[in-house]
Structure formats: C-alpha cells, structure tokens
Write a structure and sequence with these properties.
By secondary structure, the protein is of the alpha+beta class. It has four helices and twelve strands.
Amino acid sequence: MDDTLGQPATDAPGPSTPSHPARSIQRRIALLAVLVGLCALAYGLMLTLFGPSDRPVETNLGKALGNGIVTIYLHPLRVDPVNSSLQMRISMVPAAIAGAPAAIGDRNRSLVIQRGNQIEHVAITVGQPLPEVVFDFDLSDGDVRDYPLDEYRASMTLAVSETGADGKETALPIHVTLWEGLLGFRVRGRAEPAQGTEAVGLRLDIRRSGAVSIFGIVVYVAMAVIAICGLLIGGLVFAGVRRVEVTFAGALGAIIFAVPALRAALPGTPPLGIRADVLIFFCAEFGATIALCLFVAAWIRSGARP
C-alpha cells in the first residue's frame, strides 16, 4: 500500500517496447536493404565479367613495321551468327616509310588468303591500285542458341609473295594490323602457327559485347519476374487469399503482350528458339496466360454481381 495516498502501490513504468507495426517496418527496411545489396552485387559481378566499357584497339601481328615489310589491314565488318559467318575487309596498306605513301602497286605480288579449306589469291599488279577485298570466313566453336553468352572463333592465314624476273616466287615478310571494333561484338585477335616461312596465322575470338550480354540477361530476368508476379496475382485470387479486383485483369492482359515486346527488344535479333527462349520466354508467356485464366475464373466464381 502507498502510505501517502492510501492506494495500492504500482510498479514503476518500465522501458517502452516498440509496437508490432514498428517491428514490421524495421524488418521490411532490413529486407529491402538486403535485396538492394544483392542487386548491386550482381550488377558489379556482371560489370566485372563482361566489361561493357572495353574500348576496341588495334592488334599488331607478324613482323614489326619497317622498310621492306608488307602491311595488311584487317577490318571486321559484320558477324552473322545464324549462318556462322564473319565478313572481313582486307586491305593492302601503302608503305609510307620508304617515301610518300601511294596506294599504287610498285611490284608484281600475290596476296594469299587461306580461309578454312579455301585459298584465295589476290593479284597485286604494277601501276594498279592496291587491292581491297571482302571475304566471308566461317565461324566455329560457337552456337547462336547460347545467346546472349554465345562465343565464336575464326581462323585465317595470310601470306604475300613476289614474282621475280625469272618467274620465281619469294615469300615476303608481312605486318598485320587488326581492328578489333565491331558493333555488338567484341573481337580479340592472336597469332597462331601457320605453314610458310613468312605466313601469319590469325585466330579471332568473337563474343557478344558486354553491353549486349548484360542487356540480354536483364531482359530475360525481367521476363521471369513479370511472369512470376502475374502467377502470384492470378493464383492468390483464384485460391481466395486475395479478393477480386478487376483492375488486375488489365495488368495481366498487358503482361501477355509485354513479354513478347521485351523479347523483340533484344539487340542482335536472335532467332526464336534459342535456349533462353525455351527456359524463360516460352515459360513466361505460358505462365502469364495461365495467370489471366485463373483470375478470370475467380472473377466468374466470386465477382461482384450487378
């Protein structure tokens, strides 16, 4: 008893504890922070793996530049993954070291280009412009079905010979410069063994550029997330866990058309039926359609009557 007031004594008020809504908000904030951190980590890993900011450079192979060295410039023009083909422009560069550069042949020579089992001979005639030719090279060790992570390889051998007054051909030392820039792809060249004393073998490793690979992965992830959200809406409404809200019908219908629109926005327009389509795109489209059907069935069963 409280002697002063004659009333029962009460315990002193203890420290206040956070209410249930406050704890729930804290948990949501923590979960949101974890999700944002995981997304940032995944994005950083993709930047590290694919390097979207890599700049194209020139790769020099063969002999060093100098007098008596024939210079050949290679410029990739287009990659056709569907037909496994690489289009390459091959140019003879005038020798600027010996004097004023002139794109005119001063000797009778022959440029030999080996691409697979085919051997091309390009004639270089005295008094005629230096040749510039375009050839298609076969791609190997790659498949467009692996888009957006598909990689390819192409090989070629270059050699230049000079025809003397006696009709005898002599192999000449050559310098090869490869430009590694190609829209939508990353090209890396390196030397490989070649037959011939002065021949230069070249191997090209080709893969999608980092930006294309990252964008393709993000688009397919977005397809999967959209389809999962649609299935959650349709499934929960159908099971009676959530009430029928007619506005969701428009959202689910929009998902059915949004997924193909995302697929059409992929760079490089890969053919329909690649592995990512089978694993994600077809499933996402089918799942969005099922979600709409579930929602409509729930609306028919328990929707508001007029």
